């Protein structure tokens, strides 16, 4: 059997050949620095003391701490890290060091393991695993935090690892995982789930949610749907009323843009939106992607739009992006929303540019035991520094507390 291969960022460490690759190219690293890197990766679940590293990597040879400092600096440079950034190897003052980048491990020539650990600057740790849908599509899901569960349905677009450090999404993870166990996943076609899948339909998305629920072993739980994830959450809640205790819909809609178009002007706008998406994504046109970002974050800064655009590019292929948008436009759960039997909270930005607040009002009218709260924002995805964000979290906390 071959040795272990540890993959993180753009690097691969092959233990059998004692070789480090970056972007597929060999990187020359001083052997002792490679020993230190390997030891930290293999014990990434904890802080490793200086004494342990010296003992394990230098053995009986006496060296000063300066030798360890040099080896750590060399290892960081080799993997594109630095003492200032500490994205990969973090110094824990007076305790030692910890490897904090997400790691995917496999045996040379074998299959990858199903668990990836990610630790953030605050020390919170999430676990990423895989489950397999009935048609063979592999779905990546992540758990973070402790306490009662909260499951978030997938939405446009997700990457359970990259979200951890994304300015667009990281505050969502920390806010929703406070005093709770947050479970979320990447829908088929994007993120860490399979991109090349046999089928790509709304029913598949509901099936994927069902697969994640079974893999995690959830019994009865609150379910959060954001944007088009709200429609998926509604369909699941109707299919499994015994499992969903409470439903939260944020920036969601019952009918996609093509379905809800009621006149020639709206139909033309919906068609144009898709045409622009096909051309813009196929060409990876920066001007289109920036305009698209401003629809999600109209109150954002140029840095916010750049971060959102970069995140989109890294989460799926141009072909899948178009498939997603085409499928979103055809969503229609208006005929089943009235069958949702659990208490439901509908949250929406009052001046949402991407999905108008009229869609939230429609959801609240369709779902029997529902309440509507409009937030003072224009952003489809709430940002960390706007007043609506803590208000959003308070609404969710209060709503969930009622059912606990």
Automatic annotation (TrEMBL):
It holds the Pfam family Abhydrolase_1. Residues 3-101 bind DNA. GO terms for molecular function: catalytic activity; DNA binding. PROSITE patterns: OMPR_PHOB. Residues 3-101 form the OmpR/PhoB-type domain. SMART domains: Trans_reg_C (SM00862). InterPro entries: AB_hydrolase, AB_hydrolase_1, AB_hydrolase_fold, OmpR/PhoB-type_DNA-bd, Sig_transdc_resp-reg_C-effctor, WH-like_DNA-bd_sf. Coiled coil: none annotated. GO terms for biological process: phosphorelay signal transduction system; regulation of DNA-templated transcription. Keywords: DNA-binding. This is DNA-binding winged helix-turn-helix (WHTH) protein. It comes from Ilumatobacter fluminis.
């Amino acid at each position: 059997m071959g040795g272990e291969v540890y993959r993180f960022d753009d690097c691969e460490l092959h233990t059998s050949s004692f070789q480090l690759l970056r972007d597929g190219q060999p990187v020359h690293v001083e052997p002792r620095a490679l020993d230190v890197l390997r030891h930290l990766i293999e014990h990434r679940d904890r802080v490793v003391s200086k004494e342990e590293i010296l003992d394990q990597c230098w053995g009986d040879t006496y060296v000063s701490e300066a030798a360890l400092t040099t080896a750590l600096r060399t290892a960081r440079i080799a993997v594109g890290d630095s003492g200032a950034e500490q994205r990969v190897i973090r110094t824990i003052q007076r305790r030692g060091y910890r490897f904090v980048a997400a790691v995917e491990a496999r045996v040379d020539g074998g299959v990858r393991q199903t668990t990836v650990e990610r630790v953030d600057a605050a020390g919170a740790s999430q676990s990423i695993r895989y489950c397999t849908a009935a048609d063979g599509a592999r779905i990546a899901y992540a758990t973070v935090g402790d306490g009662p569960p909260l499951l978030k349905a997938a939405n446009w677009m997700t990457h359970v690892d990259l979200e951890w450090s994304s300015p667009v999404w990281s505050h969502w993870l920390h806010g929703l995982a406070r005093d709770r166990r947050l479970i979320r996943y990447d829908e088929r076609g994007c993120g860490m789930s399979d991109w090349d899948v046999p089928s790509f339909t709304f029913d598949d998305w509901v099936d994927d949610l069902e697969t994640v629920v079974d893999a995690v072993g959830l019994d009865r739980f609150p379910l959060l749907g954001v944007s088009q994830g709200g429609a998926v959450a509604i369909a699941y809640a109707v299919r499994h009323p015994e499992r969903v205790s409470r439903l939260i819909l944020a920036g969601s809609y019952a009918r996609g843009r093509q379905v809800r178009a009621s006149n020639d002007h709206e139909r033309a706008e919906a068609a144009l939106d898709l045409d622009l998406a096909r051309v813009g994504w196929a060409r990876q046109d920066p001007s289109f992607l920036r305009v698209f970002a401003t629809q999600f974050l109209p109150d954002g800064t140029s840095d916010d739009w750049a971060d959102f655009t970069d995140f989109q590019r890294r989460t799926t292929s141009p072909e899948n992006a178009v498939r997603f948008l085409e499928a979103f436009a055809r969503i229609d759960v208006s005929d089943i929303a009235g069958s949702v039997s659990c208490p439901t909270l509908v949250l929406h930005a009052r001046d949402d540019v991407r999905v108008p607040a009229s869609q939230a009002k429609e959801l609240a009218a369709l779902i029997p035991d529902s309440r509507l709260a409009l937030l003072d924002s224009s952003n489809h995805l709430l940002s960390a520094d706007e007043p609506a964000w803590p208000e959003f979290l308070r609404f969710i906390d209060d709503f969930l507390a009622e059912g606990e």
